[in-house]
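Q: Okay, next protein. This is Acetyltransferase (GNAT) domain-containing protein from Pontibacter akesuensis. I've checked the sequence twice, so it should be correct. Can you predict the 3D structure?
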Amino acid sequence: MPHLLQHTQLDKTSWDACIEASGQRQVYALSWYLDVVSPGWQAVVEEESGSYVAVMPLPVRHKYGIAYLQQPLFCQQLGIYTLHELTPEMAAEMLAVVRNNFSYSASYAFCTANTNVLQRTEPDAATTAFLFTHYLPLQESYEQLWKGYTRDRKYNLNKARREKTSITQGRDIEPLVRLFRQNIAHKIYGGVAAEAYPMLRRLYTAAVENGVGELLYTVSEDGGITAGGFFLYYGGHITYIFNAADSNGRRHNGRTLILDEVIRRNAGTQQVLDFESPMIESIAGFYQSFGSRPVPFYEWRYNRLPLPIRIIKQVRQQVLLRFLKR
């Protein structure tokens, strides 16, 4: 039977072996990744003969003495990872353990590989919602993948190739952090969390140490870095985890050059480029222009806190929203 384990009770060697051998394996679920984005994470675990055979990582946070679930930064999906076929019955058992131990889920996103089973397990529209990312399978040749680009994307890519812009592999995350802080952060509704930049630095270091990270930059004719992209390679997926560009990089289609370079280099492999698309129409449209397709995944939210606490929380949220809209 599945049961809850505190962080200190987890066997991370057995954990990572389970993730690696699971049918849903993702970089987000590896223990070192979770240690960076959700320190103190807990998990629902099912064991056989002392080894983990099914796991569900839980990004636990605490506020006012209440433990709750909150999807971490730089971690679009989590969910259930299992060595056996994931059945609706198994999923229901795992979710029941979560509900029995946590009265509140601010947000919890399941991996795309869980979607079909969860449609038969968690039909309550009041607690679940569909989100979408964008996948581009890279099995075909680059020539065939190029044909899937939209006319505008081909035009912008050809235009970018005529510019005197080069692509280089990076070894330092700081230029990418700087590009984001100076050109993008102020556009984000509600601002950027204070812990985001230190977390990104730790994540880049850990990804390089574990052999799954790649950093690409575009460099202008005068040697300035104009755009950057941070990618993670694991489990047959190339995840576009973070990116930024300045005005020059946007004007000269720096991110288009970077994404096309990743597609060209990995064409003809069994990998999938995961754009990690947010639910923003303009950004999703940009990713679709490379021939990608939307892929659904579930987000799980529920609130079974005592009524007085729910009321206080709702009032605080309303006040915060009014403040942010000023």
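A: Here is a summary of the prediction. Confidence is low (pLDDT under 50) at residues 319-326. The CA atoms of residues 113 and 266 lie 22 Å apart.
Q: Noted. On to the next one.
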